[in-house]
Amino acid sequence: MRLRAVGFIAALLVAGCRPIDEVVARTSPPANSTTPIASAAPSATPPAVDFVLQEYPVTRGQGPHDVAPARDGGVWYTAQLSGELGWLDPKFGITKSIKLGEKSAPHGVIVGSDGAPWVTDGGLNAIVRVDPVTSEVKRFPLPADRPYVNLNTAVFDRDGRTLWFTGQQGVFGRLDTQTGTMAVFDAPRGAGPYGIAICPDGEIYYASLAGSYVGRIVKETGQAVVLSPPTTGQGARRVWCDSKSRVWVSEWNAGQLARYDGTSWKEWMLAGRGPEPYAVYVDDADVVWISEWNANALVRFDPATETFVARVHPARNANVRQLLGRHGEIWGAMSGQDKLVVARPAG
Fold it and tell me: Could you tell me what percent of the chain has a pLDDT over 70?
């Protein structure tokens, strides 16, 4: 483990953040859409930006990829380029890093019911647990007949012991974290499984970027039901669930936000030319958050009013990937700038 004090810059570029003061509006659907895309009526008065961004530098060259708020008030993050798991103390700007092993290239990180960070490590082709107290690293390698699955993201089932994960090479799987038993299943349509999430009703969904669909995992059989958003080739990248078990999807190729309510779909186009929504996260107030690469912004979507508000990062190519949060905070990793970022309510 190595500890590094990062100068806690008071401004941390917050003052440099500027809003995109516009409500997203689209009057016509893309040509390949089978159903109309929702439009939000333009507002004569731009909506007030109700959140601010704060950035925290981490060790240069780490390439932070995903984040997960820690129980101790800190934030875990995967340092994909340096093969480490990092931890940030937002109060003092202090970071520490834990080496995960030779050839490590961690992608996702979540916190389990045991309070420990669990990592999907594509370089190690393993699920990795790091003890939050001792920093002990425990690896759960994938079966020998699955030599490289390009591990992506994980989520825990409601039992707190079963971890479900995705691999972009065309698989999803589960790990019994108490026994170490692992099963890996072939996904429909081959390559593509990416983001994964669990809904309050216990259903687990994953997004297939290459396959352009959302899969609902049938836990009893290891199969997946294909759910196709209205827009063909939309590039479903990440998924999240709200309190009503509705599934929200970031459509990378189509530049849209989608919602599946169990029977039907609805899609909204993001603002600007060529939007690229990467991650999607729903907070505890059922507000939807999106990391938008082309606009270099963090976007807040209010489902009640169907309006978007965005904050642009002060420097180019923030490249925020996964989003996760806790009450009053939405965290992301700025992979393009070796920083973490948090959105908090203004005022």
Answer: 86
Chain centre to alpha carbon of residue 90: 20
Q: Which two tokens stand for residue 30?
A: 């893309």
Largest CA distance in the chain: 60
Closest Cα partner for 40 from 208, 317, 257? 257
- Integer Cα distance of 6 and 86 in angstroms: 13
Residues 129-143 as b or e (16 or more Cβ within 10 Å = b): bbebeeeebeebebe
For domain 2-345, the CATH architecture is 7 Propeller (2.130)
At residue 174, the 3 state secondary structure works out as strand
């007949």: which residue's tokens? 145
Strand segments (E) across 6-102: 18-20, 51-57, 64-69, 75-79, 84-89, 94-99
Give the start-to-end residue ranges of the domains of the chain: 2-345
Tell me: the pLDDT tens digits for 91-147? 999 999 999 999 999 999 999 999 999 999 999 999 999 999 999 999 999 999 999
Selection from 29, 19, 25, 17 nearest residue 44 by Cα:
25
Whether 1 has a pLDDT exceeding 60, the answer reads no
